[in-house]
Write a structure and sequence with these properties.
The chain is about 0% helix and about 60% strand. With about 120 residues, it is mainly β. The strands form two sheets. Strands 2, 4, 5, 6, 9, 10 and 11 form a seven-stranded mixed sheet that branches. It has a four-stranded antiparallel sheet with strand order 1-3-8-7, with no helix packed on it.
């Protein structure tokens, strides 16, 4: 099993910054990828950014140039630095981990942290 705990959400004015953290614990295998997703009210959950164990990254077009995903494998912690925040970034942000167990990918989610950007 894997546990994911997000911290760092909150209320910020447009143009401001926030840093989200996700601490992972449990049976975290070496072959994995982690990411941040978000879900705004009335909308589907969407990928924000993803990073592999080897630090390959990809971002949603809407956050490119503003958000940076990173990970500290020694601490099993995932980060999302969010700059130049916009009201449309308001959502619940979820940490995700996909773990390869040798035969299939297993997916785990955190409980989510609210990010609210005021105009």
């Amino acid at each position: 099993q894997v546990q994911l705990v997000e911290t760092g959400g909150g209320l910020v004015q447009a143009g401001g910054s926030l840093r989200l953290s996700c601490a992972a614990s449990g049976s975290i295998f070496r072959v994995n990828r982690m990411g941040w997703y978000r879900q705004a009210p009335g909308k589907q959950r969407e990928l924000v950014a993803r990073i592999t164990y080897g630090d390959s990254t990809n971002y949603a077009d809407s956050v490119k140039g503003r958000f940076t995903i990173s990970r500290d494998n020694a601490k099993n912690t995932l980060y999302l630095q969010m700059n130049s925040l916009k009201p449309e970034d308001t959502a619940v942000y979820y940490c995700n981990l996909d773990r390869w167990d040798g035969s299939s990918w297993q997916t785990y989610w955190g409980q989510g942290t609210q990010v609210t950007v005021s105009s």
